Amino acid sequence: MFDRFHGMFRTASAEPYRFLFPLGIAGAVIGIGLWIPYYFWPDAFAYPGQGHAVLQIQGFLLCFIFGFLGTMLPKVHGVAPLGPIQFALLPVGLLALNAAALAGYPVLAQVFHLALLLNFFLFALLRWPTRRGNPPVFFVFIAAGALSDAIGTAFRIGGLSGYGPSQNFRLGALLQYQAFPLLLILGVGGYLLPKLFANGQVDPLRMRSAGGSLVSLVLSAGLFLTGFGIEAWLSDGMLAVRLGSGLRAMVWIWFLLSQLRVHRITSRLPAYLAGARWALVAMGAGMLMPVFLPQYLVGWEHLIFITGLLWLTLSIAARVTTAHGGSLPLLAARRKTVLAYGWLLAMAALTRVSTEIWTGGRALHLALAAAFAILGLGLWSLLFGRLAFRFPDSGH
Q1: Is residue 176 within 8 Å of residue 160, measured between CB atoms?
Q2: Structure pTM?
Q3: Is 333 exposed, middle or buried (0-12, 13-18, 19+ CB in 10 A)?
Q4: Cβ 209 vs Cβ 225: under 8 Å
Q5: What is the pLDDT along the chain (396 residues), one digit of tens a residue?
Q6: Residue by residue, what is the 3-state secondary structure of the chain?
Q7: Assign residue 199 a region: left if phi > 0, alpha if psi is -120 to 50, beta otherwise?
Q8: Angstrom distances, CA of residue 93 to CA of 62, 89, 190, 390
Q9: How many Cβ atoms sit within 10 Å of the Cβ of residue 79?
């Protein structure tokens, strides 16, 4: 029994998605689900704004980010995977972060977030000297995203502790909640998605050279981050939102058209990739709409998150779990189910956007959006979540 458990732990250290994806789903369900008891028992449940945001972005997304990068990066660079201690610190730290957010200790939650980042930075630095070749140029976005998150977390800790101007606190939230995950999508997506859209064989060792001009990618990352700085620091709020969102939308559309070439995809995509394409387009719409209707900014941000980040994350996670679980044919065999969880998330996003436009019955709209999203997460879990626990020697 001990040997079997030890083997499973070693496998999970090399493929941390096996523990972190299910943990992320649990965090998402709790974070989203807070709106349902708030609707039914508003006197007993406080408004869950900050707790909801922390569990969704720093709980759910960090689980999937660390799970995916911790599995992919060692294979791309040909280096040793996460060690047992560094791996164990990820779920422990993520559970502590979620617990601190739910218990109402926001500063402590951000400290745990920063500690998780430092743990992952240490893993990357220790492996760097033994890498086999340099990373794909698109990984400059991953570096920019990780640095943005570290700076954003420091700003958030300072703001929550009463230090620094309010603009820094706003910038910190933008860097954490948007810059970090979106830049990771540009980095990982630019490297991986063209191969998947072309139905090609994914071989990390042969894809190190994927990418275009490093100069253009650095400039686009700089423009993308400049948009967040403008939104946080420009005194004219509406103008700041229009300019900042416009810059980000411009970079995102450039990425979709010139790097992913989504407009040239003519073949019938597998359901999970069709969902990924819709998610990428939805994120672009969420960045572009504030240029025209900045008064509904919160709604557009949720369009980016729910129909964008959440749907795209689950789509790529479906590929990871089926590939590593030896069940890739499942993606084609259950096409309607794969599409169904995505459309449930789309319904959640539309309901959440409507909350900002038609403000009557706000709590009911939030609860309905939460219910749609939880149904989508549950459907994904029934289909793919169990595969995370299908270890190579488990036999089931």
Answers
A1: no
A2: 0.92
A3: exposed
A4: no
A5: 656 666 677 888 889 999 999 999 999 999 999 999 999 998 888 887 777 888 888 889 999 999 999 998 898 888 999 988 999 999 999 999 999 988 889 999 999 999 999 999 999 999 999 988 788 889 999 999 999 999 999 999 999 999 989 999 999 999 999 999 999 999 998 888 888 887 655 555 554 555 568 888 999 999 999 999 999 999 888 999 999 999 999 999 999 998 888 877 777 888 999 999 999 999 999 999 999 999 999 999 999 999 889 999 999 999 999 988 888 888 888 888 889 999 999 999 999 999 999 888 899 999 999 999 999 999 999 999 988 887 765 444
A6: CHHHHHHHHHHHHHCCHHHHHHHHHHHHHHHHHCHHHHHHCCCCCCCCHHHHHHHHHHHHHHHHHHHHHHHHHHHHHCCCCCCHHHHHHHHHHHHHHHHHHHHCCHHHHHHHHHHHHHHHHHHHHHHHHHCCCCCCCCHHHHHHHHHHHHHHHHHHHHHHCCCCCHHHHHHHHHHHHHHHHHHHHHHHHHHHHHHHHCCCCCCHHHCCCCCCCHHHHHHHHHHHHHHHHHHHHCCCHHHHHHHHHHHHHHHHHHHHHHHHCHHHCCCCCCHHHHHHHHHHHHHHHHHHHHHHCHHHHHHHHHHHHHHHHHHHHHHHHHHHHHHHCCCCHHHHHCHHHHHHHHHHHHHHHHHHHHHHHCCCCHHHHHHHHHHHHHHHHHHHHHHHHHHHHCCCCCCC
A7: left
A8: 11, 6, 29, 24
A9: 17
Place of tokens 């709106």: 35
